[in-house]
Amino acid sequence: MTLTSAGPQADQQPATGTSSRSTRVLGGACLVALAILLVLAFVLTEPDERVDEATNIVTGQFDAVRLLYVHFPVAIVTYLAFIVNAVGSIIVLRNKSTWWDNTAAASAEIGTVFCALTLITGSIWGRPIWNTWWEWGDVRLMTTVILFLIFVGYLAYRRTITDPQIRARRSAVVGIIGAINIPIVYKSVEWWENRTLHQQSTLQELRVEDLTLFTMIFGMLVFIAIYAWLMIHRFRIGWLEHQAETVGLAAAIVERRAQAPEAIRSAVTDQTHTPYQTEVEQ
Amino acid sequence: MTVVALTHIGYLIAGWGIPLMTIGLYAASLMRRSKAIEARVPADRQRWISTDD
User: Residue A87's domain spans which residues?
Assistant: First the structure.
């Protein structure tokens, strides 16, 4: 049983590390888009203020609403990253693909970073709005923490297994189990609506105006672009690590054969090659 | 509307600063890791350079 490789990330440009012309263009576009998002979030959009006409009392989130322009996008990217991980994990179990194992691992790592940021930004937003940094009984918060811990475990588990085939297969199972939690996190505010402070729909609750809605969607696209940039680099690092393992193993085999006496060398050569050895020698 | 007039300014600085700094540091760590691993792999196996293999 051999892991197969497929799908080169080719764009025919000179590279430095994992960079290439296309990633530099994408990175530059992300920075420009992020600057535009900051202008939208802090200058062009209005604070959330609602005036009660009967009492003339102003309520709302005021400028704290601007935190949602970062919290909402990082939460969306968290879902996206773990869904990509789940897709990759399923394909790994079906096709034993090195390419998809690498994709799943890269997406899990980035998703874990974004999941942590979702929890942090949500906590910072919750303090002025809910008057608490954290609520242990809140189902949305706790299911998100469980999701985060599953993928921390996924990443830790991958580091404990040295055999790439076993690592790919077992971590794919963990990734799929983690992905089962995604719809639970998403629907938790509806399924257990009496056990959460979290609003059901950010867009509905805020009664958003056009520019607010545009800023949220634009922010989501900006952070998805950032995710794509991170994914390309993280994928290429994983690919290089795989290549380094292969090159290192091939060099070690050649060195050991050179050290062996002629009789042993002949005996080794006559033995049937395993698929993995054949792949290495190629 | 100016930034100075914002309410919840501390929350806004933390809420935007922490994610942007974290993503920036993570991106920098990826660059550092890529430089470190690049030296151990022949150029012909860095497949985004060429589609030959």
Answer: 32-48+58-238
